[in-house]
Design brief:
heterodimer, A: alpha/beta, Rossmann fold, eight-stranded mixed sheet, 12 strands, 23% strand, globular, B: mainly alpha, 2 domains
């Protein structure tokens, strides 16, 4: 800490003017890498204590050695099939995991460790969640009021009305109950809660499923705008196509860890630019590409392979793959966890 | 709710009430007609030896007991429909007057118990639910489960032994002091006589509401909307007040209204133990002394009472819960 402190200070000095500039011009930021990361997750592991037989306990590891970072003005899409632990990543950053979960690893928010005390302080203020569905709204409270409770400073009613008109929600919507909202309206209300909080880090958990094309476009536009205003956005999705439309970088999630983080430009053609075999397979499985599914299933958290998590399904597998989980390494402006990747 | 819906709702409920009342009076009548208690003997009591068979037949004829049970029932039924519940054999007054007087005495007792148990039970349930898994929760759960398995009369006796006999704080029984003229009875006297029976009833009513509220609150706290509220930085009392209370109050109030039957059942026992002259004690008397008109009157009245409780519970949901109230007006 003492060693890092002076360095950090210096970094901050360098960064500050740029950040202000970003917020003013409201334009996609190109040199995001030079800014200090809003959030940095290193070697994050989440496990649950499970009772198997009688009183025998078992540690169920659902996220293992995960690394991601998001910079101001950037959208990072976390893409992976269901059950790969994406939502838990969001909950771990917010510190709202159930009490039987154990978290190890390091989460840094704006250069400082994100302790549970700090999480409690920043939740809803600097870090906001855009949840999956309308079920995350209190069924017995009018939606306008629920959005108002998310306002941290200023006049809540004014802030709520402003954000509603910005997202084309009619004034009478504020008096509706969640069950009276259509899918698209619910989505915009949920985004509104994050917008009024003025958060610097927005975690959107599956914000698009079940929406028609127009609503998807609209929802994505909301996130792009937020990022262009200088917020860091984490977009969790199982739908790679949606993610590609607005994200700056894509983190590919598999069995509780990120196997690759790649700039969005790499997802093109036959996927030659991609680093990890799973990302390539995922890309190839899309209908507009080869439409080629990969054999096998994602391993369950209770039965993870000892080596590389993708080893049982990988086409490039060698005996070395099953020895140990590959370390994350930087490769061509991205990150990969594969010993064969070039 | 639309007016047409309201009409359908009212009609359904009335139909249900009518069938309920017919079934319940028929069943009660059948049971009484098979009961081993001879009304004439119960009426005459210890003087039985001095009453000859002719006199007994006369009494029976006067009461219409010589007719077949079915005839008796039809006779009684037609009278009830025209609004006449008959005359009580033991009080020698119209049944309706007896019920009115006794019910008013019971009402004070039941209402106090109902409100106290509601508030206390809800509070305990909330504390236990918020502190789930801690020693506070376990203590409240233990207390409630113990209460739930405690017979009313036993608790009544226990309170009598401690507070009336041991400490002498409260009178041992009755609704007013013995040997005092009715006009000299003060409000204070009445309240003093009410405390122990009301306490017995409310202590027992607590368990149900508390356990139910606790369960419901735990359910609400693990819901997605509470998770999201926590993600917005809400916690502790604010979180409970905004999202917990809102979502558990309605089920608790509803439960409390639908617990009218238990309240009535408990009152019968508590009044018996404390010789409190309410409807409960009158029910026991009517049953033991074969006072058929009074017993049937009370049966009908208590059925109405419980039905009203359930109806209020239903209505509260219709009026208060927006998902039902505004269910059809969604955009």
């Amino acid at each position: 800490m003492s060693l890092a402190a002076p360095l950090k200070k210096e970094k901050k000095k360098l960064i500050k003017p740029k950040q202000i500039e970003v917020q003013k011009i409201m334009k996609p930021v190109k040199d995001i890498k030079k800014l200090q990361a809003t959030i940095e997750v290193q070697d994050l592991s989440v496990s649950f204590i499970q009772y198997t037989k009688g009183l025998q306990q078992k540690d169920l590891k659902v996220i293992s050695s995960l690394n991601i970072d998001i910079h101001p003005g950037e959208i990072l899409a976390v893409v992976g099939s269901s059950g790969s632990g994406k939502s838990l990543l969001a909950h771990a950053i917010l510190g709202i995991l159930p009490s039987n979960a154990t978290v190890t690893g390091k989460i840094t928010y704006k250069g400082e460790p994100l302790t549970s005390k700090r999480q409690e302080k920043l939740r809803g203020k600097e870090i906001a969640l855009v949840p999956q569905s309308v079920n995350y709204l209190d069924p017995l409270m009018r939606v306008g009021k629920q959005v108002r409770t998310a306002v941290k400073d200023g006049d809540p009613i004014k802030a709520q009305r402003e954000v509603f008109s910005r997202y084309y929600l009619k004034p009478e919507v504020e008096n509706l109950f969640p069950f009276q909202l259509s899918g698209g309206m619910a989505r915009r209300v949920l985004v509104s809660t994050a917008v009024v909080s003025g958060a610097q880090l927005i975690i959107a958990d599956e914000p698009t499923p079940g929406l028609d094309t127009a609503s998807v476009k609209e929802a994505l536009k909301c996130f792009r705008e937020l990022a262009d205003h200088g917020a860091a956005v984490m977009l969790i999705s199982h739908d790679i196509e949606t993610a590609l439309k607005i994200a700056d970088r894509i983190a590919v999630f598999y069995a509780g860890t990120t196997v690759e983080v790649a700039p969005v430009e790499d997802f093109k053609g036959k996927g030659e630019g991609l680093r990890h075999p799973y990302s390539k397979a995922l890309w190839g499985a899309l209908p507009q590409n080869d439409f080629m599914p990969i054999a096998g299933f994602q391993p369950l958290p209770s039965a993870l392979p000892p080596g590389c998590l993708f080893e049982p399904r990988c086409s490039m597998v060698t005996p070395d793959c099953s020895k140990a989980q590959p370390e994350a390494r930087t490769l061509r402006n991205g990150m990969v966890r594969c010993i064969h990747a070039t | 709710m639309h007016s047409s819906n309201l009409l359908i709702f009212a009609m359904k409920k009335s139909l249900r009430l009518a069938t309920l009342l017919i079934a319940i009076s028929f069943l009660s009548f059948t049971l009484i007609s098979y009961s081993p208690i001879d009304p004439v003997q119960a009426y005459v009591g210890a003087d039985m030896m001095r009453v000859g068979p002719e006199q007994r037949d006369k009494i029976a004829e006067y009461w219409g007991l010589d007719k077949s049970p079915l005839q008796q029932f039809t006779h009684w039924g037609t009278a009830v429909i025209s609004g006449d519940l008959g005359t009580s054999m033991i009080f020698r007054r119209p049944v309706i007057d007896v019920i009115k007087e006794k019910f008013l005495a019971s009402l004070a007792l039941m209402m106090i118990a109902w409100i106290l148990s509601g508030i206390l039970g809800f509070t305990l349930g909330v504390i236990a639910g918020m502190k789930e898994g801690t020693w506070v929760d376990r203590a409240i759960k233990w207390y409630c489960l113990t209460l739930a398995s405690t017979p009313t009369f036993w608790l009544g006796l226990l309170l009598l032994i401690i507070f009336a006999m041991g400490l002498g704080w409260f009178p041992i029984g009755l609704g007013v002091p013995a040997g005092v003229l009715a006009e000299h009875v003060t409000m204070g006297d009445r309240i003093q006589h009410l405390v122990l029976p009301a306490l017995t009833l409310s202590i027992l009513g607590v368990a149900n509401v508390a356990l139910h509220t606790r369960q419901k609150l735990i359910e609400v706290l693990s819901s997605e909307y509470v998770l999201f509220a926590r993600a917005r930085g809400e916690k502790g009392f604010v979180l409970f007040w905004r999202h917990g209370f809102r979502n558990i109050a309605l089920p608790a109030v509803t439960l409390q209204f639908s617990a009218f039957s238990e309240l009535f059942g408990g009152a019968v026992l508590a009044e018996q133990v404390f010789s409190y002259p309410g409807l409960g004690q009158t029910t026991v008397q009517a049953g033991l002394r074969g006072d058929v008109p009074l017993l049937l009157g009370i049966v009908i009245f208590s059925a109405l009472f419980v039905f009203t409780g359930n109806l209020i519970a239903d209505l509260i949901y219709q009026i208060v819960d927006p998902r039902i109230r505004e269910g059809e007006s969604s955009l």
